[in-house]
Amino acid sequence: MRVIAGEKRGTKLVSIGGDSIRPTTDKVKGAVFSSVQIELREAQVFIDLFGGSGAMGIEALSRGVPQAYFFDISRDSIGIIKKNLKLTGFEGKAIVKNCSAEEGIGFLCKNSVKCDMIYMDPPYKDGISMISIVEKICEKKILNSDGIIMMEHEKSVIMPITIKSFAKYKEKKYGTTFVSFYSWENFG
Which residues cross the membrane (predicted)? Predict the structure, then answer.
């Protein structure tokens, strides 16, 4: 696992072995960022909602996003994220919190943080409802009007066309991995 592009291109990142973290593959990571490269140029804040190894948020920082927030409920994951931020020298551009996705959204709202991109890749086996998390994002209004939510999921998970005020505008398939892209319905 490595940083694909940008300032820290080629930097190897660490991950926890075994099944506790399933990092987004370099192929998927590269394809996702290629598909949002125009939006990424304007992005100021990136949220890695189920941080895992921190690879997605670190990729955003490497590609020029000024600030990233990393949330994960696992202490092991938080330790790995901090190691990877140190490896890349991005500690000063990141805020890392050991908490659930819902608590992370609450933290952002409480601190009046508005973001431009949210990446969600919850552990597949945990059965976490991405829909309820997107509903919380909508309710707390932490995503800017031109912001994007990207959700990585298995083929067997069918994401709806709309979730509250968000509309799916694109879905990409990368092998057995799918990524659904959402934006505010009334944007455009």
Answer: none
